Amino acid sequence: MLKYTAARILVFVAFLVVFYLLGLREFTLVIVALLVSGIVSLFALNTTREAAASKIAKLFKKTN
Fold this sequence. Notes:
It is a single chain. This protein has one domain (2-63). Helix content is 89%, strand content 0%. It contains 3 helices and no strands. It has helices spanning 2-21, 26-44, 46-63. The longest helix is centred in the first third of the chain and has 20 residues, at 2-21.
């Protein structure tokens, strides 16, 4: 799960830098970077997300 979280943060920061260099600033920069990184992460990090979800599901099965 830590791997997925780190990858999501890395994707967000990468888009933050790219959009900053393209001239976006302040609130618009953060919102656009969040939206675009979320969409990209949905497809690019699919296998990592599935692995993290599987680990979380196993943890909940053990506690119940």
